[in-house]
Structures are given as C-alpha cells and as structure tokens.
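ok new one. same drill as before - structure tokens go in, u give me an amino acid for every spot. 243 of them this time. try not to just spam alanines like last time pls lmao
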C-alpha cells in the first residue's frame, strides 16, 4: 500500500562529486520489495523525481542518487532535519526466484540491487559496472551481502571493460537481475535470448506523476501492448520487451 509521508532527512552523504546517499525517516515501517521506488518532492522543483529504494531499515529509506541536474543537485544541498514529501513504495519490484542469481548494475543502476541482495540472501554475485571508479560507490555495502565484481570502462577500478566481461557462464538455471543504462540492458537481453537464462530488467523512463495517471512513461510490451513503467514496472521480464 503506497504512502504519502513528510519524511525527515537524517543523513546526506556526498560519496564523491557525482553521487550522494540520502537517508530519510518516514516515521512508519512499510514493507518494501527490492526494485520498488519512491518519488521525492524536491523543494522548488515542479515534478516529483523517482528514485529506487536502495535500502530500507525500519522506518528509514536510503537512496543512492547520481547528481545529473537541478533536482538532484538540490537534494545534495538538503540539510539534516529538513522535511521532504515522499510517496512510496511504488511500482513492482523484482520477482525473487530460487535460481542461481546474478545481479548486474550499471552506474546508479546499482541502486535497487543492494536491497535485492539482502532479500535474496545466500551471497549472490553482484557485478557493478561504471565508466570510471567514481561510478562504483557502494562496494563495501554490497560486500556485506554479496560477492562483488567490479568493471570500469577506463580500467580505473576492477576489470577494464563492460559488466558483461565479468558475467559467469549463464544457463537456464540462472536468473539475472539488472538495472542500468539501456545499452547494457539491451546487450543482456540479446544474451538471454541466446543462452536462455531468466532476465529481469529494471527500466527507467521520464516520469511526471509516478502513479499511472499521466501515461508519460509507457513502454511497448509484447503481450499486453503498452504498459506504464511507474505502475506495471519498473521491473519487466526481458521476454516481455520487444527489443
Ligand atoms: C523508476 C526510476 C528509478 C530511478 N532510480 C534512480 C536511482 O536510484 N538513482 C538515481 O540517481 N537516479 C534514478 N533514477 C533517475 C532519476 O529519477 C533522474 O536522474 C532524476 O529525476 C533527475 O532529476 P534532475 O532534476 O536532477 O535532472 P533533470 O534536470 O530533470 O534532468 C537532467 C538530465 O537527466 C536526464 N533524466 C531526467 N530524468 C531521467 C530519467 N528518469 N531517466 C533517465 N534520464 C533522466 C534528463 O534527460 C537530463 O538529461 C530513476 C528513474 C526512474 C524512472
Ligand atoms: S509517470 Fe505518469 S503514468 Fe507513469
């Protein structure tokens, strides 16, 4: 059941010049499934901005945020004790499977995967990829719940190349959960068609309402026509996407 709350900022931690970790106290503990997101009403920004729930502990939610524009910059400038309006949990998260799990996150696409690694248990393999080492921000947090492999395109951390360089041999007994830039998701989609493993993809779309009302975030799907990323996703089964 989604909630609209006035949440108190309890921590704003700049991880580097491009990323921040924002924790808010919502005042109430609500069950959150990994892959679900929240929308934040940033002061003096017209539309709410969507962010994956990176971690949920008791009444607290944490977001891993890449600073890309005016709204995210304003989030970085918030102070502890300020209040912010949050609607959560939104959308459908990952469908947890008993298959051997591999989690793949590109840049801030790693955000929903921490909660997923916690909820899956059993220390799954997490592959974190980025353009440079600055995109790999939560390695230690992931290492508490998962085996972590790192790739960077410039070789500044981990293996040089794309996340696909660290993928293990994938079979129909495996499930890959992925979030990140569309080229990454599309390359996993092609691989899943070839190797027949299960693939769940968390998509991004520009969102206005985040509630299924404005149809600003529709994607085309195979069986059911157009669906809203905000309400029917953001996680979709790869075979449902006509890529
Ligand atoms: C379901 C969902 C979950 C998300 N989770 C996270 C997350 O955990 N961490 C995170 O850092 N970001 C996440 N995003 C993206 C985040 O919402 C945007 O980066 C943010 O809204 C940008 O706000 P802004 O005002 O700073 O940028 P704007 O000034 O609005 O835009 C700056 C630039 O970012 C681009 N942009 C804006 N919104 C999006 C978007 N939704 N997708 C792709 N590009 C966008 C714009 O085209 C523009 O080039 C998520 C998006 C969705 C839809
Ligand atoms: S953002 Fe309005 S319908 Fe999805």
């Amino acid at each position: 059941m989604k909630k609209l709350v006035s949440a108190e900022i309890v921590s704003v931690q700049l991880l580097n010049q491009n990323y921040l970790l924002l924790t808010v106290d919502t005042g109430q503990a609500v069950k959150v499934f990994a892959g679900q997101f929240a929308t934040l009403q940033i002061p003096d920004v017209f539309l709410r901005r969507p962010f994956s729930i990176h971690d949920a502990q008791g009444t607290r939610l944490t977001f891993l945020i890449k600073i890309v524009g005016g709204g995210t910059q304003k989030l970085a400038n918030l102070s502890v004790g300020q209040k912010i309006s949050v609607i959560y949990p939104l959308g459908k998260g990952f469908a947890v499977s008993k298959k051997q799990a591999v989690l793949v996150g590109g840049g801030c696409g790693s955000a929903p995967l921490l909660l997923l690694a916690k909820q899956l248990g059993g220390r799954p393999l997490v592959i974190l990829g980025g353009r440079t080492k600055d995109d790999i921000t939560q390695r230690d947090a992931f290492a508490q719940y998962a085996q972590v492999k790192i790739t960077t395109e410039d070789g500044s951390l981990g293996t040089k190349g794309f996340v696909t360089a660290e993928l293990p041999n994938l079979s129909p007994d495996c499930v890959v959960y992925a979030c990140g830039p569309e080229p990454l998701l599309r390359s996993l989609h092609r691989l899943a068609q070839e190797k027949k493993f299960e693939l769940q993809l968390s998509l991004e779309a520009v969102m206005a309402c985040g509630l299924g009302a404005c149809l600003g975030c529709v994607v085309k799907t195979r069986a059911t026509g157009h669906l809203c990323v905000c309400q029917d996703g953001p996680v979709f089964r790869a075979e449902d996407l006509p890529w």
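The domain at 3-90 is CATH 2.40.30.10 (Elongation Factor Tu (Ef-tu); domain 3). and btw The chain has four helices and 16 strands.
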